[in-house]
Amino acid sequence: MSVLSETIEKPRVGGPGTGLGVSGLVPSGGRWLPLTGEGYTVDAVLISSDFSPPVVTAQMWVPRGSGRSSPYREGRRDESGPVALKVRAPALPKDAKDPSITARARLSIYYENNLLQSAVVKVGVVGDPNVTLVEKNAIEMDFALTGSFQNLEARYASRELVARVKALARATRPGAGAAGDG
């Protein structure tokens, strides 16, 4: 069977112990993608010039329907707690007139290289625990491709984009549609 000139192979089934839950593997663009019955992984990325290190990433398992997400480490769900992106706060300048500073970062969530949600993170940093922050810590979402993480693979799978780009490239090259073009 051929769809957009991409050969479709029979899916492969994964079972207990694979870390995929009740699952299968579907070929796409020369690689096998998991088609899970339970959920899937997304990437959490924190980028900042204020915190160190400046880029921190983690994978997170998200249930297909509803329920709690959990860290995804070494190819398996880790039920030990929430995803932790560990960073060091900036130090207050020694000659600072203000007893606090605000450190900023961008937190983004990706599925198959599709940006799903992104937010600005603002955190107050103080040198003295008795100092009251002028501005509260906040996370302000400023981009959302989706408000839900349900059925992501059906809506944002990269294999669809790859197949469409290949089809578009074939359709726009000189002589497209000529006899023998396949």
Write structural notes for this entry.
It is a single chain. It is built from two helices and twelve strands; from the N terminus they run E-E-E-E-E-E-E-E-E-E-E-E-H-H. It has 182 residues and is mainly β. It has one domain. The strands form three sheets. The protein has a seven-stranded antiparallel β-sheet with strand order 9-8-7-6-10-11-12. A three-stranded antiparallel β-sheet has the order 3-4-5, with no helix packed on it. Strand 7 and strand 8 form a beta hairpin.
SSE blueprint:
Blueprint lengths: L1 E2 L2 E2 L4 E3 L8 E6 L2 E6 L2 E9 L7 E9 L6 E4 L2 E2 L22 E12 L2 E13 L11 E7 L7 H5 L1 H15 L10
Antiparallel strand pairs: 1-2, 3-4, 4-5, 6-7, 6-10, 7-8, 8-9, 10-11, 11-12
By secondary-structure content and strand pairing, the structural class works out as: mainly beta
Q: How many angstroms does the end-to-end distance come to?
A: 14 Å
Radius of gyration: 22 Å
Mean pLDDT rating: 77
* Strand line-up in the sheet with most strands: 9-8-7-6-10-11-12
Helix content: 10-25%
Element order: H for helix, E for strand: EEEEEEEEEEEEHH
Contiguous low-pLDDT stretches (5 residues minimum) are 1-13, 178-182
Largest sheet: 7 strands, antiparallel
Number of helices: 2
As for the number of domains, it is 1
How many beta-strand elements?
12
Strand content: 35-45%
User: Shape, please?
Assistant: elongated
